[in-house]
Design a protein that fits this description.
Layout: E1 9-12, H1 17-24, E2 32-35, H2 45-55, E3 60-63, H3 77-90, E4 95-98, E5 101-103, E6 107-112, H4 118-135, E7 140-142, H5 156-167, E8 170-174, H6 175-184, H7 189-194, E9 201-207, E10 210-213, E11 216-218, H8 227-240, E12 245-248, H9 256-281
Parallel strand pairs: 1-2, 1-12, 2-3, 3-4, 4-7, 7-8, 8-9, 9-12
Antiparallel strand pairs: 5-6, 10-11
Helix pairs in contact: 4-5
Length: 285
């Protein structure tokens, strides 16, 4: 059986009202949580202590926002070392980032697509290996949503798989991003998903989005998860087995009780396949 850094269903950890609500009562259905290291590394002792109160109770993972793995500027190795120290300080189980770039002599405040070329595969894979050498562990790269099609010497799935293979890194699978790109770039989401290297998945994301038009969907993490995305998660579990899955919500954050309903729905899908597996192997009740 594959070993994951965390297990079950998770929820993104956010400062503000959500954090305050969880300090008052942490729902038992949350199996793990996730933070962006950039939002916590510069924080003072008070916030660091508040975070530690959670990391001592629930497993945490880190999901970065500013590594800019495909960017033209030199890799910020000092930042990578800070991430490593942060992970050790809070016993973070793994580090994932976006297969994109977000800086060029300054931050661009968006996650932009890397050209799908052989040259970019070698460039990005080399930078990933550098990060892994500094952290002394494999990192996971996330398939990202994008809206302007970059150079297409390779298809998106060919590019993602080539980078992961050459870098010998792990995969952070984002279910909503697959759905969003399938609408915007007119491909079959299930076909794309099934071509991903499931053996490299460490955990996944599921989220909501905004439908601008019938043929334009924006990955906002600011709405409820729609049924088509849940269906795609169901396919992913059927194809790869159950993997840890986290509900992402960054904007229009509802009360904790509403968010937990989505976390519990993830658990329902996971339990369905765990039950099927147990029955098939004769290990149930």
């Amino acid at each position: 059986m594959k070993s994951y850094p965390v297990n079950g269903a998770g929820l993104g950890f956010r400062r503000g009202q959500l954090m305050t609500e969880m300090e008052e009562s942490l729902p038992a259905s949350i199996d793990f949580m996730e933070v962006a290291p950039e939002n916590w590394i510069p924080m003072g002792k008070s916030l660091t202590d508040r975070l530690r109160a959670f990391t001592e109770r629930v497993p945490f993972v880190t999901h970065g926002l500013s590594l800019s793995i495909g960017g033209p500027s030199p890799l910020d190795t000092d930042f990578v070392k800070e991430v490593g120290q942060f992970m050790k300080q809070h016993d973070m189980r793994c580090y994932s980032e976006h297969l994109s770039y977000c800086s060029d002599n300054g931050h661009l405040y968006d996650l932009l697509p890397i050209p799908f070329t052989e040259e970019a595969v070698h460039y990005v894979a080399d930078r990933i290996r550098t990060v892994q050498d500094i952290l002394e562990q494999k990192i996971a790269m996330e398939n990202v949503s994008f809206y302007a099609m970059p150079s297409t010497e390779l298809s998106e799935i060919e590019f993602v798989n080539a980078v992961i293979e050459e870098a010998d890194c792990n995969l952070h699978i984002d279910i909503n991003n697959i759905y969003v790109n399938s609408i915007n770039h007119k491909y079959d989401a299930v076909d794309f998903l099934k071509q991903l290297p499931g053996e490299r998945i460490v955990y996944g994301h599921i989220a909501g989005h905004y439908e601008e038009a019938e043929d334009l969907v924006v990955d906002t993490h600011g709405a409820d998860i729609i049924e088509s995305v849940w269906d795609l998660l169901d396919v992913a579990y059927q194809e790869f087995g159950v993997f840890p899955t986290l509900v992402e919500r960054d904007f229009n954050i509802p009360p904790l009780a509403e968010l937990i309903q989505e976390v519990e729905k993830v658990k329902e899908y996971q339990e369905k396949y765990e039950t099927v597996k147990a029955t098939a192997t004769g290990t149930s009740g």
